[in-house]
Amino acid sequence: MSSEKPDYTASERKTLVDTLAANRAEVLALLDGLTEEEARRSLVPSLTTLLGLVKHAAFAEQVWFHVTLAGRTRAELGVPETVDESFTLTPDDTIASISDNFRRVCAESDRVAFDHDLDDTATHARRGPVALRWSYVHMIEELARHAGHGDILREQVLAARS
Q1: DSSP β-bridge partners for residue 81
Q2: Which end of the chain has fewer beta carbons closer than 10 Å to its terminal beta carbon, N or C?
Q3: What Pfam families does this protein's entry cite (predicted)?
Q4: CATH architecture of the domain formed by 12-159
C-alpha cells in the first residue's frame, strides 16, 4: 500500500482513478511474501484462494473495461464466461504469472478508460447501459470487497506458519 496521502480536493476523475489504483495495489499485495502453496491454499468451501482472488480481479477488470467499455468479446480476450471459472487455478498459474497478468490488465483498463469521459456509456451484457463513472465505482467496491476477503485469508495463512 502506498504511504502517499490522497489528494482530498482532487477532481472527481482523479479521485476515482486514484482510489481504484489504491484498491488494485491492496489486491496485489495479498500475495506479497507468500509461497506458491500458501497462495493456492483453500480455506473456505468456495473456489476462493488468495491467488484466485487476484486472478478474479483481473477477470473483473476485463469484463468492465475491456469487454463492456472497449467492446471486445470475452472469447477474443480469453475471459471466462462464468464468475466461478475466474477463480479457477490451472497448474500453470503462479504468483508471478497471475500478478503480471493483473498488472497488464489494469494498465490496459487505464488506457481504455483514458479515451472516455465519465458520462460516456457502454452496454454491459446483463445490466444494459452503464456510465464509465459507474464502472469505476463498481470496480472500486469490487476490489475493496475482495481485498477484505483476502485480508482474512492471508491472516489465516500467516497464522498457520507458527
Answers
A1: none
A2: C
A3: MST
A4: Up-down Bundle (1.20)
